[in-house]
Amino acid sequence: MRWLFLLLIVLNVFYCIWHQQEAPLRAKDVTPLSLYRGSQQDIRLLSESSVAPPIKSGELLAARECLFVGGLARQDSVSLLGQRLAAMGIKAQPSLDGLQVDGFWLSVAPESQRLLGDEQLRNLSKEFNELKHKIMLCEGVAPAE
């Protein structure tokens, strides 16, 4: 057992010497982040941006929220939904944001949202099986620059 222990110690010393003779790794040159970001050197809050006015503590966020109806897989189903909404007197237009990942969506105009209640959404979902609705910010999260 002693010989096995001594053999392992000798092999360990040999491995350490062999490993030390390899070329040491150089540290990578890291480019400062300030060169990549250009003019955007600091973090700016959405309330500090010039695009949207800041939200006061008593102000409701509902004024900036829009209703999106859709989630349909086919474009022709969305056009039929748009015609059905127009027949109900609701203004809606195709949404071009990033919602096409889960299907095609229509953005309901803020003045028409009060006309589209829970009962109307239930009736529409009976006609269009895949119909979903989401309430999200109208202009998006990040300011356009």
Features:
32% helix; 145 residues; alpha+beta; 4 strands; 15% strand; Alpha-Beta Plaits; 4 helices; single chain
Rounded mean pLDDT score: 76
The sequence of SSEs as H and E is: HHEHEEHE
Total helices: the number is 4
Helical fraction:
25-40%
Radius of gyration in whole Å, from Cα? 30 Å
Under CATH at level 1, the class of one domain stands as: Alpha Beta
Which word captures the global form? elongated
Q: What's the number of extended β-strand segments?
A: 4
CATH topology of one domain: Alpha-Beta Plaits
The N- to C-terminal Cα distance equals 74 Å
Strand order of the largest sheet: 2-3-1-4
Describe the sheet with the most strands: 4 strands, antiparallel
Structural class: alpha+beta
From the coordinates shown, what is the CATH architecture of one domain?
A: 2-Layer Sandwich
| Beta content | 15-25%
- As residue ranges, the low-confidence spans are 54-61, 141-145
